[in-house]
Specification:
mainly beta; 16 strands; about 270 residues; seven-stranded antiparallel sheet
Length: about 270
């Protein structure tokens, strides 16, 4: 794993892992600390086609201004704000599977309410288990691009037909689901140490907290993907009303600590 940090962020080695921190600051500068195993690779050479990823983690606050998490993705934006020296990557649709937290400014779902065929409403922010599966090319992408300048709502609806997704809130689970998690509320208390594990295979993904299966999905992202562990002050939103917003947020000193990382490729 390689560590990278922007100005006003840092990565510190601990006895069994790392502490990733971002400093208090305004909404004018991007602050990010991350570990990854793909930063110097072209996207088609990302290392993983399946993976079991397990680690212990805790974060400084349950309301970080920005995002944090751990899992795998295809670096769909290809811009990697704040870092230089990386291979150029064209933006693509997302393929990702992770434990993800996004503050209230984020809206990271293309579905609305409780979509047909889903047993639960899909969260768009907060702490969640989340997965995206997208094709490289699709005829509706051209149409969505043509419609976007005139109707963002229509473009968003077209993208929802192309991008498969599934997610589950780990903040608002039932009391029965939360048994054994030592939570302060009905969900996972992310400020306390927990063991997180995701099992990504070709046909399904399963998320565990403290060895308890929390969520299972048949939406498995298209490989190859790279591992990422991060905390930053960024947000992105594409709301059902068609509003598109992205940028960086004012925030306090925050940190994400991870330990005992175990990765095992299934193939």
């Amino acid at each position: 794993m390689n560590g990278r940090a922007t100005q006003n962020a840092k990565i510190e080695k601990t006895e069994n892992g790392w502490r990733l921190g971002i400093q208090k600051g305004d909404s004018l500068s991007y602050r990010d600390a991350q570990l990854d195993d793909y930063s110097q690779l072209p996207r088609h050479k990302f290392p993983h086609r399946t993976l079991s990823l397990s680690l212990r983690a805790k974060v400084s606050s349950s309301s970080v201004a920005g995002t944090w998490g751990f899992g795998l993705w295809n670096d769909p934006f290809g811009l990697s704000l704040g870092f230089g020296g990386r291979p150029f990557r064209l933006p693509m649709l997302p393929n990702a599977v992770w434990f993800f937290y996004g503050s209230k400014e984020n809206y990271l779902s293309f579905k609305e309410g409780q979509p047909q065929g889903f047993a639960h409403a899909l969260p768009a922010n907060g702490f969640m288990a989340q997965t995206f599966r997208s094709p490289m090319l699709h005829p509706l992408l051209i149409l969505a691009g043509l419609v976007l300048p005139f109707s963002r709502k229509v473009a968003r609806k077209l993208l929802s037909k192309v991008i498969q997704e599934d997610s589950f809130s780990l903040e608002y689970m039932s009391r029965q689901q939360a048994v054994g998690l030592q939570s302060q509320s009905q969900g996972v208390d992310v400020t306390q140490w927990h063991r997180y594990r995701l099992e990504w295979s070709e046909k399904r993904v399963v998320w565990y907290v403290d060895e308890t299966p929390m969520f299972e999905s048949l939406v498995s992202p298209n490989p190859p993907l790279g591992v990422i562990i991060w905390i930053d002050n960024q947000y992105a939103a594409f709301t059902p009303e068609g509003k598109i917003a992205f940028g960086v947020l004012k925030g306090e000193d925050e940190w994400l600590e991870v330990a005992d990382i175990v990765m095992r490729n299934e193939e």
